[in-house]
Structure formats: structure tokens, C-alpha cells
């Protein structure tokens, strides 16, 4: 299945290509050599992230599941989305397995799997390589399990961004267990804007292998994805009860662990257990830890 590359074909709905809306007990199963092709090149060329002279506009998500319960999405090959590849929005009870997502590393905003306002979702046995987050988990998401994930290229596995434009955001009950990341610009990341409120809590990252990954472990409560510097603000989305366990590999950046937390709302209850990250080429990596209350158990390197 291939999308039109004529942008005028999307005048009625600029945000979606394929959408399943309010359908319960749905099973979608692929297989073989067939794929879903978003034909995204024309959209990438007209992105404000590629051409700064152009205004920023919406681009379609290739495949959206909206306001649905008890979904099974299996063995799909999805490539070159106009923007996000697969999005689960306001869903409850999702099993997504055997997904293969592919787009060029330079393609803008092409998140692999996006989870928003969705509860009880299992993402398993999937291979994702894109120009943005392999998996992005944003506000309103609860009980999200991601297991046996291969990620790269891309921006890693992210919770957030949360709290943009002074909004309230909540994410809880996230587990990433058994992931391999290679050559990504981040590893496992939590990113929140200054000025927001709410919390990201009860989060577990474990059994993860990093291969030449920049920023393998990062919490950024001062996230700022805009050209102008962001204004310093006192309110923040709170980050608490986060566990990093059995994480090993190599960092492409000197800083392998970075906790850049809020001055007014420090990161709380952060645990590093059996973490060993070496800078690529056997150089000595380091940690930067600002405004964080953490505990270290077992072998932890680099240390705060």
C-alpha cells in the first residue's frame, strides 16, 4: 500500500493518512513482503526542520489507531511515513508485535511508534529505525510495556516531550525491558519542558544494550526544541521513581549519563543498578548529575 505523493490530496485531513477510529476488538496482521509506504519524501522536503525558510505545518501520520479497545497489530512493515509512522491515541488494551519501521536517519519527525493518552499497551519484538524517536510516549499514557525492541538509527526511546506551553502532563507505569540501541542520538530519555506541571513516574529501563549511542541515559527537564533559548521557569513536570537496571555498552558521547533536572523540582527516587557504559574506543565516559536525588547499587560506571 503506497500513499499519494501529491500534498493536495490531503486537504481534507492534513494529520492522517490511514486511521482506524473507535473500532474495538480489531486484529490487523501483515506478513510476507508487503508494506505500508507513506511516500514521505515530498513532506520531508517541505518541513521547516529541513528548510528553515518554510512555515511549520502538520504532516500526516501514516497509520493511526484512535479511541479503540482491545487491538492486536502484528507483523506490519511500515516505511517512509510522512511524519509519525504508527500512532496509538486514546486506546486501551493494545498488543503491537512484530512491527518493522524504516525511514532515513535524516527524515524529520518520523517517530516509529507514538503512544499518547493510551493505557495498557504492549509493544514487543519490533525493529525500528527512523529520523526521530523509535518509540515516543507522551501525556496521558499509563502502563506501557516495550520489550525486545531494536532501535537505530533514530533518537532513541523517549518519554516526552512533556509539559510544553505550560501544559499539565502525566505518564506512569512505563517499562522498557530488553532493548538494543545502535547509533542513536539518545538512548533512553525522559524530556520535559520548563513551565509545565504534572509528573513522569514509576518508570523502569532494564536489560538494555547500547552500541555507539550518544546520551545513553538522559533526563532533561530543561528540554527546548526551538531556535530561540527557552525562558527559565520555576514550574516543571516532576520526574520520580525511575530505575535503570542492567544497562551496558558504549557511548558515542563523552557524557554517558546525564541528569539535567529542575532546580525547583529535582528528580526524585532515581536508581542506577548494574550500569556500565564506556565511551566508544575504550575512552573514559563521565556522568553529569544536576539536581537529582539518586541511589547507586551494584557496579555503576560512570558514577555521579
TrEMBL record:
Active site: 155
InterPro entries: Glyco_hydro_28, PbH1, Pectin_lyas_fold, Pectin_lyase_fold/virulence
Domain of life: Eukaryota
Record bears the keyword Translocase: no
GO molecular function: polygalacturonase activity
Compartments where located: Secreted, Cell wall
Gene3D superfamilies in the record: Single-stranded right-handed beta-helix, Pectin lyase-like
Cited Pfam families: Glyco_hydro_28
GO biological process: carbohydrate metabolic process; cell wall organization
Family: Belongs to the glycosyl hydrolase 28 family.
Identification of the protein by name: Polygalacturonase
Species for this entry: Gossypium barbadense (Sea Island cotton)
